[in-house]
Amino acid sequence: MDTRQQALFIIFGGTGDLAKRKLYPSLFELYEKGFLKENFAVIGTARRPWTDEYFQEVVRKSVTTDGTSKEDADEFAQHFYYQSHNVNDTEHYVTLQKLAQRLDEKYSIGGNRLFYLAMSPRFFGTIAEHLKSQNIVTDNGYNRLIIEKPFGHDLPSARELNDSIGRYFAEDSVFRIDHYLGKEMIQNIAAVRFGNNLFRALWNNRYIDNIQITLSEALGVEERAGYYETAGALRDMVQNHILQIVSLLTMNMPASFTETDIRREKIYALKALQVYTPEEVQENFVRAQYAQSQGLKGYRQEEQIADNSRTETFVAGKLFVNSENFSGVPIYIRTGKRLAKKTTRIDIVFKDVPKNIFGSEKLGKNILTIIVEPEGEIYLQMNVKKVGQNFGLQVQKLDLLQSESDSTPIPEAYEKLILDALRGDATNFTHWEEVAYSWKFVDAIRTAWDKQEDAPVEYISGSMGPREADELLAHDDHKWIFTAKK
Ligand SMILES: NC(=O)C1=CN([C@@H]2O[C@H](COP(=O)(O)OP(=O)(O)OC[C@H]3O[C@@H](n4cnc5c(N)ncnc54)[C@H](OP(=O)(O)O)[C@@H]3O)[C@@H](O)[C@H]2O)C=CC1
Ligand SMILES: O=C1O[C@H](COP(=O)(O)O)[C@@H](O)[C@H](O)[C@H]1O
């Protein structure tokens, strides 16, 4: 089967951080693996007046690491063209249309176009409109729009944004990126759940006691402070990545492993999220900010951050998916910056056996742990017999998968997602209804917080958040499985 793709990429925000750090290296990987060969070209656009030569140099630099072949990087960069372009200026789209047409012919692309909007969402509507009105979309190939997060800052703004895009592009041409859905171990959730009868049978409120999702980062806000100050951890990480993980963990088994069936079940799971009243928000959610400590700046001392900022850099919460299989199972989530360690992990804690027949021998919990980062790993914690004449029990970890044992290099999330978009497979992109239900849940929390007089509590940089996040679980007689000490 010929896996080579033919496409013209037009990247809006071609001079930006995301394009340089993620998009060009991912395209290069696809080139090195043969998915992109002769029949592709990339137009980078942004306002600054770069030349093609300068742009190609930027691209070469961004794809070059220790092992990169200089010849391949040079050949790859030859496919890149730069067009200085202000997205608000209609005249500029006329020039863009001509360049796109010329490159389509030069590289025999056949009209396939992928428009990557790697810039502030406030421009998305105007770009979509101009792509249509200035005939940059073709009628002899596909026209797909890849859209970066954040998709709005609440439900009304997301709906407005969706409507403005929807006037020009049908839902099946819109690929809303959530890069967590391109991560290998996040994609492994479906394999573990639906590929093993053992877990398929136990994956419900009869056997699962609680679920814990941790997305912790060691870094602070770095150079994205301006954006972060308007978002906070709730909008930056919970509305998208965490709720997407929740939907993958709690959705019913899809009728088939296809885009339509998977998305249907994810939408259903997100629709079943319990939307909290302000009192329930107070009880079930904790927000916090990193404080000045251990020689590191506190959040309010960072550049571009107001010294009275109330933006949360940490969120912990307990949520419920009120579906037949998951109602009653607390799902504890936490995410934050300047925490002890960069890690993304999911712990599924199973219920205790109904009766311990081993007398004074204590039984440990069965816990299935999926570590997404730093290394992909899956463990199952089990009770087994201690070796020896006497009967004693011990807890052991069954190592179900270790990335080291599989020599295939793990593709970067963006690389996988761009290839999916080229193939027209939107399974790992978020449907509008998923976005809408996620905002509905998050808006209830945000609105309650905005009305609270208290500022976020503080936590020490390098810790796993404030003690309130531990108390949230202690209140239910639970505790976080992952502590930084391990
Ligand atoms: N960076 C990251 O790690 C991540 C980014 N994202 C999202 O990706 C998007 C891009 O982020 P990022 O690359 O960091 O942002 P940057 O600020 O680095 O880039 C913004 C880009 O937009 C261009 N631009 C701004 N105004 C205009 C205009 N009027 N006309 C044409 N071009 C314009 C800028 O170039 P110029 O000034 O030359 O016009 C620049 O290329 C955002 O939606 C962000 O939320 C999502 C996840 C991670
Ligand atoms: O979307 C975002 O994700 C990153 C964390 O992504 P990861 O792949 O490194 O886990 C986060 O730093 C950023 O604030 C947020 O916008």
Automatic annotation (TrEMBL):
UniProt domain Glucose-6-phosphate dehydrogenase NAD-binding: residue ranges: 10-188
Record keyword Cell membrane present: no
Gene3D superfamilies xref list: Dihydrodipicolinate Reductase, domain 2, NAD(P)-binding Rossmann-like Domain
InterPro entries registered for this protein in UniProt: G6P_DH (IPR001282), G6P_DH_AS (IPR019796), G6P_DH_C (IPR022675), G6P_DH_NAD-bd (IPR022674), NAD(P)-bd_dom_sf (IPR036291)
GO terms (BP aspect): glucose metabolic process; pentose-phosphate shunt, oxidative branch
Binding-site list for NADP(+): G13, G14, T15, G16, D17, L18, A19, K20, R47, K149
Entry keyword set: Carbohydrate metabolism, Glucose metabolism, NADP, Oxidoreductase
UniProt cross-references to PROSITE patterns, sorted A to Z: G6P_DEHYDROGENASE
Domain of life of the organism encoding this protein: Bacteria
Protein name: Glucose-6-phosphate 1-dehydrogenase
